[in-house]
């Protein structure tokens, strides 16, 4: 039996008939073809699948379809506006915080969720925000530097 769910993804409303055993990650990647969100461990440990659901960073591999009903989701595809990368994405590039890139979309979403509630985070707060996101390449420092740079740019915008 299919389950009808409505949800908003990157500002767009969707009504979908889906297999209730699907996870939010499957809906995003398969039904909506938003493949920027990655699947790593599939068990809530690596953070590669992180998206923002109702303003909070969540592991989309651990959210069942029914839990996503009526929710507002932001994926990495929702970060750029009118074809221009967000300040956070630009800062990741400037600081060399992207290497193999597998963790990057999840990392960006955890950092974005932090900046949505705190535009001026400390290093400690950034480290805490990304503690559920594993990165094998960067050593994390460049990511922390990128978030600090983005926070400066965001405050200039206000
Ligand atoms: S794939 Fe979801 S946390 Fe690893
Ligand atoms: S850039 Fe390769 S895992 Fe993070």
Key features of this structure:
five-stranded mixed beta sheet, 5 strands, DNA polymerase, domain 1, alpha+beta, binds FE2/S2 (inorganic) cluster, 2 domains, Ubiquitin-like (UB roll), single chain, 158 residues
Fold topology:
Blueprint: E1 3-9, E2 12-18, H1 24-31, E3 50-53, E4 56-59, H2 65-68, E5 72-74, H3 87-94, H4 104-117, H5 123-129, H6 141-157
Parallel strand pairs: 1-5
Antiparallel strand pairs: 1-2, 3-4, 3-5
One FE2/S2 (inorganic) cluster (FES) binds at residues 39-42, 44-49, 59, 61.
Major sheet details: 5 strands, mixed
Gross geometry: globular
Bound molecules: FE2/S2 (inorganic) cluster
* Strand order in the sheet with the most strands: 2-1-5-3-4
**Total domain units:** 2
Radius of gyration equals 15 Å
Secondary structure tally: strands: 5
How much helicity do the residues have? 25-40%
- Please trace the helix and strand order, writing H or E for each element: EEHEEHEHHHH
Amino- and carboxy-terminal Cα gap:
49 Å
Which structural class matches the secondary elements?
A: alpha+beta
């Amino acid at each position: 039996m299919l389950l009808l769910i409505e949800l908003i993804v990157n500002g767009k409303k969707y009504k979908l008939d889906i297999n209730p055993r699907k996870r939010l990650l499957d809906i995003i990647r398969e039904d909506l073809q938003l493949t920027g969100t990655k699947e790593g461990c599939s068990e809530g440990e690596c953070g590669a699948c992180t998206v923002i659901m109702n303003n909070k960073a969540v592991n989309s591999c651990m959210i069942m379809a029914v839990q996503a009903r009526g929710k507002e989701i932001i994926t990495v595809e929702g970060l750029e506006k009118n074809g221009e990368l967000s300040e956070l994405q630009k800062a990741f590039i400037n600081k060399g915080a992207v290497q193999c890139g597998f963790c990057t979309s999840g990392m960006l979403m955890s950092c974005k969720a932090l900046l949505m509630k705190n535009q001026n985070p400390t290093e400690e707060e950034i480290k805490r925000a990304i503690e559920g996101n594993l990165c094998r390449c960067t050593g994390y420092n460049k990511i922390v530097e990128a978030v600090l740079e983005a926070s400066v740019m965001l405050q200039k915008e206000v």
